[in-house]
Amino acid sequence: MIIAAKLIILIVAILHFYFLWLEMFAWTTKAKKVFRNFPEHLFEPTKSMAANQGLYNGFLAAGLVWSLLIQDTLWQIYVGLFFLGCVTLAGIYGAISVSKKIFMVQALPALIGILLLLLHNFI
């Protein structure tokens, strides 16, 4: 169970490192293909705002990676739960305020990770 949880945490971290790259470094190029519903003329004016958002995604990814590196199993679970919880809340907010697709891409994998960590902890 813990191996599956760690794999999900790694996948969620990789996703958030991708979001960091997309929003910080590829906002006016590759992001246009990913965020097709976003008006074309707004990419350039929102470049610095997207970069700030990307930085936050980087913090989430770093926290998830940190949770994988902690030696103490209980603390590893606590830190993993915290950062997966942050990702889940961000995904739910994004689904409500922007697009329901965000729930599937961001919140659902994090919720699966939370479930796996809790099952490992209580089984």
UniProtKB/TrEMBL annotation:
One Pfam entry name: DUF1304
Database matches in InterPro entries: DUF1304
Key word Transmembrane helix present: yes
Keywords: Membrane, Transmembrane, Transmembrane helix
Annotated transmembrane regions: 7-29, 49-70, 77-96, 102-119
PANTHER family: BLL0914 PROTEIN
Protein name per Swiss-Prot or TrEMBL: Membrane protein
Organism: Flagellimonas eckloniae
